[in-house]
Amino acid sequence: TELREDMPSVLADVFSILDLETSALEEKNKRDHYTQLVGACLVTILKERLDPETLESLGLIKQAHQFNQKIVKIKTKLFYKQQKFNLLREENEGYAKLITELGQDLSGNITSHIVLESIKSLIGCFNLDPNRVLDIILEVYESRSDQDEFFLSLIKSYMCEPLTLCHILGFKFKFYQEPNEETPKSLYHIAAALLHYNLIELEDLYVHLMPLDAAIIEEHKRDISEAKQIARKLVMVVLPSEKSEDKEKDKEKEEEKNDKPPDNQKLGLLEALLRIGDWHHAQSIMDQMPSFYATSHKAIALALCQLVHLTVEPLYRRAGVPKGARGCVMHPLRSKRAPKPAESFEDLRRDTFSMLCYLGPHLSHDPILFAKIVRLGKAFMKEYQSDNRPEVKDKMDTLLSCFLSIADQVLLPSLSLMECNACMSEELWGLFKLFPYQHRYRLYGQWKNETYSSHPLLVKVKAQTVDRAKYIMKRLTKENVKQSGRQIGKLSHSNPTILFDYILSQIQWYDNLISPVVDSLKYLTSLNYDVLAYCIIEALANPEKEKMKHDDTTISSWLQSLASLCGAVFRKYPIELAGLLQYVTNQLKAGKSFDLLILKEVVQKMAGIEITDEMTSEQLEAMTGGEQLKAEGGYFGQIRNTKKSSQRLKEVLLDHELALPLCLLMAQQRNGVVFLEGGEKHLKLVGHLYDQCHDTLVQFGGFLASNLSTEDYIKRVPSIDILCNQFHTPHDAAFFLSRPMYAHQILSKYDELKKAEKGNRQQQKVHKYVAACEQVMTPVHEAVVSLHPARVWDDLRPQFYATFWSLTMYDLAVPHAAYEREVNKLKAQIKQIEENPEIPLNKKKKEKERCTALQEKLQEEEKKQLEHVQRVLHRLKLEKDNWLLAKSTKNETITKFLQLCLFPRCIFSSIDAVYCARFVELVHQQKTPNFCTLLCYDRVFSAIIYTVASCTENESHRYGRFLCCMLETVTRWHSDRAIYEKECANYPGFLTIFRATGFDGGNKADQLDYENFRHVVHKWHYMLTKASVHCLETGDYTHIRNILIVLTKILPCYPKVLNLGQALECRVHKICLEEKDKRPDLYALAMGYSGRLKSQKVHMVPENEFHHKEQPARSATPASQQNGPGSTGKPATSTSKTEEGTSEDGDRAKDKSQGTTKPVNKANSAAAKVTTSNGNGFHRLGKEKKEKKEKTPGSTPEAKAENRREKQRDERAGKEERVVREGKEKTPKADREKVKPEEKSGKDDKVKAGNGEPMEPSRERDAVKEAKSKEKGDRSAVAGSLKSPGPRSESAESERDHKRRKLDSHASPSHSSSVKVSMA
């Protein structure tokens, strides 16, 4: 085998290792063996490898120490002695030539390769230091920074070692890190260029730059704390002495800042990187710093903005430039490594969005770029909304989320830092209005609650805005609205959320600011209005605010103030309503009805539809007409100019499908208020919330009915059975919503039939209208059957039920007086305009034209309504025979009519209250079979305690109005015999049936005559008094409040009898005394009623003028009476006969019984029949009048004795009335006993009438007392029944036999003279 070439070296290595090993051993013999071995080897190689001491011991060298010194000298000479020239002064010619070479004109064919060859020659010729040459190349590059391409290529060819370059650059940067030194931009530029072309690494260079990252973070924290401190100072109340101290401290801080710190070289390098378009390295530097720290320096922000400009330019030119705009040309960067310009929206995701996110709020430095980004967003949204391709949906959704993030993190914060730039605000609204309100409100929420804490500048801006807002609001009055409004507008352009938050907080405390604030908001931009809507919703939804006052009986004033502001602001300014309406809807879904106050205010202000139970009779009359009459005379406020605002409200409801859900939720929530919400709430508050919910439903439904087109309304409202059975809508609300739909459908069908057969005769039109009604209402008749149990339809036909619920006052009567009143007002207005010389002629002409046009509209509307009412009445005339069935007693029929129709609707609205009274009158006038008018009125007036007690406050107003209208009709009939004869005498509603035995031997039908009707009316007045006094004496808040409201409403018609009025006055006076310091609201109601009652005293009459109460004889006693299916509620009477039983008197009595006596007792037993829970058959019913007719006063000794007894009773009555006035008695019964002793005797007679037992006058008083005590005991029962006032006497029995008068007894077994009636 051949010997390896490196064998000597390997062998030497072995010896070297052995040397080390043996030198460490203590055994000398081994060391000796080693030296012997080495001695036998070659020495040359060993001298290079072995330790000097070993060589010395081997004798190869003389002294190890000298050998070491010699080695050091040789190495120094070889490696450390410089043979090159490092400094210019050492070899200035070489460096001069180098500088000349680098500084030559490079415009020709000079390339970096040629120059590099020259540099190498110079280095070799003049022995130049290569590092120093590199330094000079960089210096020249600094001075000629425009020659990037040449120098970068040269450096790359000359020295591609990154660390060397970094050391030289780091040395340069370190030179400028001394205080008061400024790093030149050229140095930043070459460092950026070298980084951009990857000649050096950022990590290597970054460590040479100052300040340290830790110092930057500390500075950022310090800035935030200072900003917060400034914000606190602006919010705090500072004393004058403290202000001066703060000023001195601020001066010291400013002086400290004047000592200029060293440059932030990292930021300088960052700016240079951005200028040349090196986004990758710039992003790396910004990631090392706190958020937005870098861009908070204006130069960097502008550099980044410029880079974004260049990136978006092509896309902006294609999609974002508005029509007519030219714009300035942007020159692209020369570097091919810069971010690529975006050609499509998808390209924006590559770099542009991230650049904008790093820019953050500091986009405010470049409003032009701000506008460009916004316009690109608008262009994208239009494309997003138009492009529905499924394959691009995911990409578009991603881009949408990107634009939303940019809006949140960049656009809105930047707007906050702009100086009141209204144009930018409007530009931004152009983008935001394309977003759904849910996206917008989320952005506003972030802007308001989070953005301002993210940056020191924004913290300061927020504090300054609040400070300025305080300044403006302190000085805002009605007189300086214009000036303050401009200041508010200026402040709102940049920071609307902060401003509105403060303004709303002030309005919640001071509601008198609402009017001036609303007027001052006219200088806002569209974006600001939208932000205001969000701020209002946020304030309403504030979970920290209680919506009830501390007493838990009323809604908090802050909520009322905000609701009032909502109505005014949304009406006056074009603000989108969808968010607010959806908020109310969501609250209703959650079972909360407080916020319905907002909806109520908005509808009232925007549509001009008021809901109030304090309407005057003129307004109420106007509300029964057409839309024009309602607008002119039906409301308190001025409702002109609501066309645009109501149109806006309608469009929002339709676009967002909120119309029907709101109606249904409100209808369901009415009961929810009581059974779900009202568990722990005060009864007064529950009632208030119920009223608010109900009133808002009525108001909102009225708005929909008058503003939605026929198609829109019918399309959205389901049929009545679906509303009630599927959506569980209460029946009254369901019919309220469906009623306009029926009217629309009937009219459209009527028009359709008219067009089909053109006939102008009125008769033909009426027949077509009836046919249209049948076609539309027949499905409704079938649908309502499912709403109630089958037994209900035994008495009421579905047709009657549907007719009652589907008609309105507009269908029943024309308010001619209201039309005439409004026309006269317009005529007077025209005359006033003509006589006013100050009005310019052109304005005069316009106003006159407006008034004339309005006048013509009203007259045309009146004519149209008149024709409509005639058609409706004709239709009702044809229908009436099929309305009521005779399967049950009339009492049952009336009960169902009251329960299912009259009572639910009369408390629904004021118009419905009038409608119910008018409908009863109409049914009477139509001579409807099986309808007993007397019975209906009696049930209404005799059963008010429990109805009143179960009403809310507003329902009491409506119930009172209903009673007033009913009383008006009764009073009109009572006032004049001619009217009574004309309107009641021959009507079936006043028909009575009695059976006479022994005289005529058959059934007789007769009418209740006028005088007996007056007795009946007096009985009703007495029952009202009895119920009123009872309610006033209960001490219960609801009873007292409601009865006072009802009494106030019926004051025009009741009380008319002096002694009843005195009893009420006494009781109300007592309430005033008792409640003065306990319950102020009751005291106020009682005082108000008391004053009005006193003013009505002059119109009251004594009882004997109201009806004839003298009773010459008391022998006639009505027997028990029943109503059969075929009867019309006519009570039978006993013929009058004197106590002597003379045939002459008997004949006279028989004659009277044919005309007067029978109706009297008919009325008696009718009243007995309808006695209800509130009274036990109090029926004078003309018994006295009957007997007066039977006997001539004073014709017999018995009559004279009776007269004496009457006088004694009158004297007792006077004494007892005085006792009433003194307020000695406390119970309602006692009061009524004091007030009306005659009434008691009449009641006694009535009770006797129920039992068919006559009583002698001497026993009547005892019976009266017993009846009174029974009446008092029975007041608490829900249903009352007549009771016999005393034991059956033999004389009464014999007299009854003698008279031989018996009542008609062919009634149903379930019904007797004492009827229990449930007034549900």
Automatic annotation (TrEMBL):
Disordered, as annotated region: 242-265, 1106-1320
Principal location class: nucleus
Gene Ontology molecular functions: mRNA binding
Subunit structure: Component of the THO subcomplex, which is composed of THOC1, THOC2, THOC3, THOC5, THOC6 and THOC7. The THO subcomplex interacts with DDX39B to form the THO-DDX39B complex which multimerizes into a 28-subunit tetrameric assembly. Component of the transcription/export (TREX) complex at least composed of ALYREF/THOC4, DDX39B, SARNP/CIP29, CHTOP and the THO subcomplex; in the complex interacts with THOC1, THOC3, THOC5, THOC7 and DDX39B. TREX seems to have a dynamic structure involving ATP-dependent remodeling. Interacts with POLDIP3 and ZC3H11A.
Xref: PANTHER family: THO COMPLEX SUBUNIT 2 (PTHR21597:SF0), THO2 PROTEIN (PTHR21597)
InterPro entries hit by this protein: Tho2, THO_THOC2_C, THO_THOC2_N, THOC2_N
Superkingdom: Eukaryota
Biased composition (Polar residues): 1154-1176
All residue ranges annotated as the THO complex subunitTHOC2 N-terminal domain in the record: 488-563
Entry similarity comment: Belongs to the THOC2 family.
GO cellular component: THO complex part of transcription export complex
Compositional bias (Basic and acidic residues): 242-263, 1137-1153, 1199-1248, 1256-1275
Species of provenance: Oreochromis niloticus (Nile tilapia)
Keywords: Coiled coil, Nucleus
Keyword Coiled coil: yes
Name of the featured protein: THO complex subunit 2
Pfam families: Tho2, Thoc2, THOC2_N
